[in-house]
Amino acid sequence: MNLDAKIPEGSLEQKWENFKKTAKLVNPANRKKLEVIVVGTGLAGSSIAASLAEMGYQVKAFCFQDSPRRAHSVAAQGGVNAAKNYKNDGDSVYRMFVDTLKGGDFRAREANVYRMAECSLNLIDQAVAQGVPFGREYGGYLNNRSFGGVQVSRTFYARGQTGQQLLLGAYQALMRQVGKGTVKLYSRHEMLDLVLIDGKARGIIVRNLDTGVLERHAGHAVILATGGYGKIYYLSTLAMGCNGSAIWRAHKKGALMASPSWIQIHPTSLPQSGDYQSKLTLMSESLRNDGRIWVPLKADESRKPNDIPEQERDYYLERRYPAFGNLAPRDISSRAAKERIDAGFGIGPLKNAVYLDFAKAIKEQGRAKIEEKYGNLFDMYRKITGFDAYEEPMMISPSAHFSMGGLWVDYELMTTVSGLFALGEANFADHGANRLGANSLLQASVDGYFIAPYTVANYLSGDIHTGKIDTNHPAFDKAQTEVETNLKKLLGIAGTKTVDYYHKTLGKILYDYCGLARNEAGLKGAIVEIRKLREDFYKNVKIPGDTVSMNSELEKAGRVADYLEIGELMCFDALERKESCGAHFREEYQTAEGEAMRNDEEFQFISAWEWAGEGSDPILHKEELIFEVLKPIVRSYK
């Protein structure tokens, strides 16, 4: 399979402009003849659905939540990046490009990364026009702050609610189009399969989650904006409903999965407090601007944090990475925390956390200033833990968070299936092996507002004479029959173990062997264990209810069945990549100081995996990464 990224000609600065100059267009009269399906109504999905509808296309938008406002984009707290250089501290599109490419350990395409930085300039103006209440300085100018992996202030924020506020802007744009009749919104509908006609994505099979009825929906193109699959670890910062099923069903229809093992472990989550938990709470990385991270110098310390004198504290990030300190990138910060915890210096009831201390910032800036910047986060911490972070340090711990991997897409955000696009976290495109904080909201927004409207139109220009897609086509019959068979198979197992049992067990296998650290023996063992677990799942899972009514356990079972396959592919991907890069840390490949050791000679490529059928090992394809502008360097934050 030839993986053509379709990168435009010209210098790095000219590539996107050159694409837009030559992209094919659809005239307004023809747009209303073309239908587009958008699955997912978070920031990427709502923005592309609203944008295409505003242009005149007929759009169907689907979400499994009861409202697009419930999309997980609301959980992104700390901010969104843009190279505006409002602080006059040396920022630029090029510097943002460098930071992002370096932050991803040189495992992303130059052209995609530069385009994201370039489009960031327009996003802030777009969001302000929509009414997003970004933080402002006393004089009324937009304020911004730093995030991990950078030395400038480029993160625009709305206290600790940035994702929610950006989503509300996109949601209002979407609902305007719903009101005009150009978007048909299907909430409480879950995509269960992709329909291909003559090799092109032409529709989806969805299940109405309130009635259980299967529905067929056709379109001239399908856009997946369904987020990431980090919930595969069970305990993660993601909501329980987050899943990887839409992209996985597309993968099994021919869309390659790229770099699935690149999963980000976020350094500032609240630590697990017991086996009863189904998720962990994210605390914004923005807290690391003013908070200092430390552990006691004494192992198994039992004193309260305020009773431990300064000279008996180890500010390990400041010690190990003096140039960036507490703003070291997420992968590095998370591994450093795990190393201290594993060495016996963890704190808290389960000794599974580190401290995030604001005493110095409060003393220097005053409590009122800290409240202004982080007040809602401190309130959330107090409600959850019962502790006051103004009076004593927060307790934080690494937790599964974001998937850099996803469906392989070319420069136009199209997968290896013609007419199937993937936006935001559903694709792999912009972050490499590690995502810098505040780039997730950026990617989702620019994909939906500024990139896909051009690239999807470029594709749809070839369909103006196609006519309406018929849902009575045999391809729809076949896809629906397969979905019905799979649902009946799950309900017919009638075992004794819950779906959650399998999800928890899979999550622990992956966290132990394909989490913050990996090694060959562990990954090989994990593949064996996951295969055994999947076999047991299809013998012993218990799913009550039926297929023709509301059945949340059946929903979960389908998603966990997919996770059992995604988890195996993650381990294959991590086993194949015999190097350490970004979030992928192979213990066999590290420096004497414990830092990641890349192997550019052999692994400077994107792993793109093909589904080979049930029971067969996946097939690896490689997209070689060529760096013409920024040559890969040793990634150092010291």
TrEMBL record:
Subcellular localization, per the record?
A: Cell membrane
Quote one Gene Ontology molecular function term: electron transfer activity
| Residues forming the catalytic site | 330
Q: Sorted alphabetically, which InterPro entries does this protein's record hold?
A: FAD-dep_OxRdtase_2_FAD-bd (IPR003953), FAD/NAD-bd_sf (IPR036188), Fum_R/Succ_DH_flav-like_C_sf (IPR037099), Fum_Rdtase/Succ_DH_flav-like_C (IPR015939), SdhA/FrdA/AprA (IPR030664), Succ_DH/Fum_Rdt_flav_su (IPR011280), Succ_DH/fumarate_Rdtase_cat_sf (IPR027477)
E.C. designation(s): 1.3.5.1
Keywords, comma-separated and alphabetical: Cell membrane, Electron transport, FAD, Flavoprotein, Membrane, Oxidoreductase, Transport
Classification via SUPFAM superfamilies: FAD/NAD(P)-binding domain (SSF51905), Succinate dehydrogenase/fumarate reductase flavoprotein C-terminal domain (SSF46977), Succinate dehydrogenase/fumarate reductase flavoprotein, catalytic domain (SSF56425)
Q: Which GO terms describe its cellular component?
A: plasma membrane
Question: Which segments constitute the Fumarate reductase/succinate dehydrogenase flavoprotein-like C-terminal domain?
Answer: 503-637
Q: Indicate how the chain sits in the lipid bilayer.
A: Peripheral membrane protein
Cofactor(s) demanded: FAD
Q: Where is the FAD-dependent oxidoreductase 2 FAD-binding domain?
A: 36-441
Major subcellular site: membrane
- Which reaction does this chain catalyze? a quinone + succinate = fumarate + a quinol
Gene Ontology biological process:
anaerobic respiration
> Per the similarity annotation, which family is this?
Belongs to the FAD-dependent oxidoreductase 2 family. FRD/SDH subfamily.
Q: What is this protein called?
A: succinate dehydrogenase
| Gene source species | Sphingobacterium paucimobilis HER1398
